[in-house]
Each structure stands twice: as C-alpha cells, then as structure tokens.
Specification:
The structure is a homotetramer of 200-residue chains.
Chain A lengths: L4 H4 L2 H16 L6 H8 L3 H7 L3 H23 L6 H18 L1 H8 L7 H28 L8 H21 L10 H10 L7
Helix pairs in contact in A: 2-3, 2-7, 3-4, 5-6, 5-8, 6-7, 6-8, 7-9, 8-9
The first copy, chain A, binds a DNA duplex (21 and 21 nucleotides) through helix 3 and helix 4.
DNA sequence: CATGAATGAGTATTCATTCAT
DNA sequence: CATGAATGAATACTCATTCAT
C-alpha cells in the first residue's frame, strides 16, 4: 500500500526534524531556511516542495505534535477510571513526552509563540484542545463528586494548563537537568488540594 | 538636585510610551524604529541618544514596569496581616494594573517574550522577583500555619505565577472585554483550596 | 520517408500551441515552463526533449510563424500583376492573418520583442524577410513606373513595415474589437499618395 | 530658492543617469539594482530612498524624458508657421534628441517596452501625447488646405509615429553609425507625397 | 520517450544603526 | 542635543534546467 508520494521517501519528515533542531538551537526568527536545508541535507529549493514557506514548517510541526499528543492521550486515558486518575495521566503524559524529546518541547513551548498570523490559529487550536480535555475531566469529576462544583471552569482550565506549561518551560530552559516526570504527581496534588493547610 | 539629564525634557519617557503603543499594535518584530520615532515625534537618530538599540527600549520598559509593580506591592502589602491576605493583595494588584493599561499589559505579557539575549535577563529578573515575593508569602504562611508544609515551593511559585499570567494574557488577547479584577479572589481560592471536594 | 521523430506524435506542436496561449495570457517573462507543461499536458522535463530552453520555444514559434506567412504570401502573390497590387496583397494578408488568430498575433507582435540574445536573430530574420519583400515590390514598381525613383528604399521599407506593425499591435492590444482587415486599403493609399493634398 | 530637499544634492538625478546607462548596456531585466547603485556610487539601500522600486526608476525616466521632449517641442514649434513646417520640426527634433544621447534613446525606444503594469501607463501617456501632437498638426493642415481630408486620422497618426520610432530604433540598434537627423526631411517627404509616382 | 523530484544560483527589498551637519 | 540621509548586511523565495528512474 503506497503512501502519499511526496512523503514516500520521508523527505517531509527529514526536513521537519531538521527544522525542529535548528529552531531549538537558534530560535525561530534567527533560523534561516538555508540552515534548515543544510541540516536536512537537501537544497534550499527543496524545502519549498514540501512546505509553503518558513512559517508553514513551524505550523506543521505544531499541528502534528499536538495531534500526536492527543492521540496518545486518547489511547492511554482508557486505563483511567476516575477523573482524578485521568488528570494525573494527562499531566504525566505531558511531562513524559516533553522529557523524551527536549528539542521538540523547546520549540513547542517557546518558539511556537513567536510567529504570527498563521501560527495564531495553530496555537489557538492546540490550546483549545487542551482546555477541552481538562474541561471534560473536571466536569466528569464534578459528576463523580470528586471535584467541587463551586469553581469557575475557565479559571481551572487556565490554572492547570498554565502551570503544566510553565513547569515544562522552566525545565526546558534549565537544560533538562532534573527529572521532570517526577513533578507530575506533586503538581496534580496542588491542583487538587491547594496550598491551604486548614479545611479551608 | 538635578535629575538625570536624559530624562530632563521627558524625551526618554515620550519615546518609551510611543514604543509601547507601537509594540502593542504591531508586535515587537514587525515594529520599526522609524515608526517609533514618528509616533514619538522625534528623528530616528534621536532614539539612539536615549536607548542603545531597539531591544533596549523593550528591556527598559520591562525593567521599569516590573519595578513600579513591586514598589506598589511593597507599599500596599503593609495593609495585609496574614500571608493569605498578602497573596490576595498580590493577585489583585496584578490584575488591577493590567486592567488599568491594557497596552502596557499586552507588551509585558506577550511581546516581552519574543525578543532574545538581552531580554532573557530582564524576563528572568522579573520572574525571579515575582517568585521571590510568592516564596516569601508561602513561607510566611507556613510559619503562620495557614499553608501546608508538604508542598514543593518551586511548584507553588510556578503554579501561582503561571496561572495569574495566563489569566491576564487571555484577558489581554480577548481585547479586555470582561472584568479582570473580579477573577482575583476566585483564582486565589483555587490556589488555596484546590479543586478537590473531599477533605483531601 | 519518415518525418522528424520529434514531430511524429505531434507533441512538438502541442507544446508550441500551449506556449503561445500561456505567453499571450501571462507575458513571456511571467510565464513559467511548468505552466506551459501543464497547459500542454506533459511533464516539465518533456519540454526539454523538444526545445532547448524556454526562449527556444518562443524563437521556434516566431520562425515558424514567419515562414508560414511568407509561404502564404508567395502563394497568393501570383494573383497580383502590378507592384501596387502586390503591396495591397501583402498588407491585406498581414492584417487577415493577425485577425484570424489574435493570440498568435499578440505573441508575435508584443512578446517576441521582450526576449533577448537568441531572439535578436529571429527578429532580425523576420524583419529582413519582410524588408526584402517590400524592397522587391518597390523596385518592381519603380521599373513599372508606378513608384517614384527619388525615394530612399530603406526609409520606405521601414515606413511600411512599422506602420503595418503598429496598426496591428494597436488592434491586438485594444482586444481585437474592430475590423482590422478593413484598414488595409486605406493604409496602402497613405503609403502611395501620402497625406499631402497638393500635386506635391 | 531651495529646491525640493531630496533632490538638492542631485542624488535623484545621479541615480537616474546611472540607471539609464546600466539599462542601456545590460537591458532592463538583466540589470541589477546593485549594479545601478554601484554605477551611481551609492549604497543599494539609497536607491530606495529615491525610488519605490526598480521599475519606478524606469518609469520616472520615461515620464521625465517625454516631458522634456514635449516641452522642447512646444518651445520650438512657435518658429513654424504652417502645419507642414511643424511636422518637419517634430520629426527633426525627435531625431536630433535621439542622436544627442543615444543611451537615453536606447532605453526609451527599446527597454521601456519591456516592463509591465506600471510601465503600461507611462507608455500609453507618452504615445498619446505624441498622437495628440500629430493629430493637431494634421487637422491644422487640413484647415490650411495643405493636407487631404480623405485620410483616416488614426492611421496617419500611427504611420507617422511608428515610422519615426522605427527609424530611430534601427539607428540605435545599429550603433548610431550614420547621421540620423539627415533622414528627417526625406521621411517627412514620404509622409507627404507617398511613394506613388503618378498624380495618384 | 517520458517523468517530475531535486537542484541551487540569483535578487529585490527592508531596516537597525551611524555620523556629518 | 537633534537630525535624517545614507548605509549595507542579511534572507526568503522562484524557477529554468537536469537526470535518475
């Protein structure tokens, strides 16, 4: 069964991978199409056989990376029974994926947000998908009775997303020196119990 | 006692204010030094009498904005007795300031992170200051007994900073349509009590 | 007797015809070899089996179009007895041919002159052939006594060629809205009698 | 009395003159902005302080050259009494101007027609001005009785313009080897008396 | 003969920064 | 202090042409 011709020889992937490496090292704006081509071992013009322009490379990566993440989550979420378990799983997966390929994480966390017009949509889509997942989990938890009803869903989504995102970004920028995945459970505990000592 | 010469005629501030407006409207990278000069009503070259380069304008704004924020906080924190009150005050102030000048907030929240080398330091400094303040509050709360001891301080700092930051950014990008300050208390409640319904 | 291989399956003509359409619509310089290939229904590389390069396509068309024109003239000139009749026939044919296929005329009149090196020769050849024909007619007329002897042949040739050419070009660029052939006789009358009212 | 600042130091003219030389030698399309800059002794970027883009340089030259030509004609036409004298003057001036600066003539005659969109208008304007002048002369001649009434004005205009144009172009492309101005009167004679020997 | 993926040379244009006035 | 004309490095993108299949 033949795959799409333009992807048959994997040049699409080769270029994408090369671009991620270059973006991670140089930053999106300082990266040059020629650099990416060199890193990918192709001619400059070849880039444009597979991507519309420089920004499209980044957008494609973001789209694809998001997709893979949520597919993986969909797959693994079946293991979880309760909403809390699902939340732990989500955060864990996020941290694990980031730890597995720091370059991808760097681009996804930091460089993605630098571009513009075209990117805005990709970022929005990715964020929305994340928010939706969190939202479902929270609502499920409320039905189960494990999560309070007197919370503003919008705030909860933002708190969880932003915190996870920030912890990863910090780890990435610190050079990936420590064990990121180990922070998943403590962070989820914070989400669940808060920092207050009393019964509030 | 004479003020610094470069600030004597207020041209420094004029340029800074103009730059913030331009950055907010065009985005840092698409902004042009000429645009800023025109907006400020000075010649292009004049910019370089008051700032080292384009990036320095942004860095100066960030530095100054941070400074003002923490000065204001230092002033107002005296009103607060407990750590929890201080936390509420911090978040409230952050939201209020953002709401007061959305353009500044836009640049501070969004554009600041787009630049590089030079900015890295400014961002770090600003973050560190914020983290320090949060850290002090949390430790104070722990001594008071109002905040649990079994939390990782680093995670708490990041959670609080990232969540506040994200809520503001969302508000800014949404065009400042709703009342931001009203979200301060609910958000702090989330920090304190978490989302879990049980006694944990 | 086999025909030239490259013309056996008519692909040569197919490409040529496609090119003329593309050149006419886009202009020579904005036209792309890929566009021509697509219009002709062949692969990009196939073009180069039948033509040396982009310019050669245009040159070939010009050469061929000129040839056909002068063959047609040679054929029809037999009908004419006097030099004046031949001149009328030449101009008439030129106008009629242009009117029959405006796209070809557009390329021949306008685009032909845009290319360079290689084209210079083709244009020269085409012009020379035209000049030769006019020259023969004029000389014949001088022998017949119908055309003055005190004219500079070079100027006469240029006047006739340029005027016919210009009238066609104007018609082409105007979108072929009016009847071009009807202008042949009035134009020849101008050549013959001039604009002066007196007996000169 | 100060001239417009941007033209005060003649850089506008310097660049224009340099461009004409480069266009004449290399042809418009093969000419490079860098070449023009070098020839003018300025930096590449300086070109864009005085012209919008490459094509604007050519357009400016054409506009200016046309203007100068018609101003000169307006001035000198006062010397002429009859329509025929005016016609001789027009053709003479055209030939003389071309002979005076062959480079300008080369660009005006040959390169001008190569560009596109923007140029279309300039060419049209220049042609129209020429046609108008010829048209006025012919009509004046008809009123005087020196020019026949049974001619199509449109054809006469085209014949005269095209013939003059072609004779100049031939001279230019031949390298300006012979005396162009000497051809003015014989050519006008052709226009007036035609080539026919009989009393028509 | 035919294909079309790959090539890579070639270029207009922008804009942060400088410096003579 | 202020100006703004001049600089020139830096870069994404196109497209005619080739050649392995």
């Amino acid at each position: 069964m033949p795959v799409a011709k333009s992807k048959a020889n994997g040049k699409h992937e080769t270029i994408l991978a090369a671009a991620v490496r270059v973006f991670a090292e140089e930053g999106y704006f300082r990266s040059t199409v020629s650099q990416i081509a060199r890193e990918a071992g192709v001619a400059d013009g070849t880039i444009y056989l597979y991507f519309q322009n420089k920004e499209d490379i980044l957008a494609t990566f973001v789209r694809q990376h998001s997709l893979q993440f949520f597919e993986a989550f969909s797959e693994r979420v079946k293991e979880a029974k309760t909403a809390v378990e699902k939340l732990r799983l989500l955060v864990n997966l996020h941290f694990t994926v980031a730890q597995r390929d720091r370059w991808k994480a760097l681009v996804y966390q930091v460089e993605m947000r630098r571009s513009s017009r075209l990117m805005r949509k990709e970022i929005k889509d990715a964020l929305k998908a994340y928010h939706d997942v969190v939202g479902q989990i929270v609502e499920e938890g409320q039905q189960e009775g494990s999560i309070r009803h007197d919370v503003q869903l919008g705030l909860v989504k933002r708190m969880i997303f932003a915190s996870v995102d920030e912890v990863i970004t910090t780890w990435v920028l610190a050079g990936g020196k420590y064990d990121l995945a180990a922070l998943a459970d403590p962070l989820v505990d914070l989400f669940l119990k808060g920092i207050s000592s009393g019964p509030a």
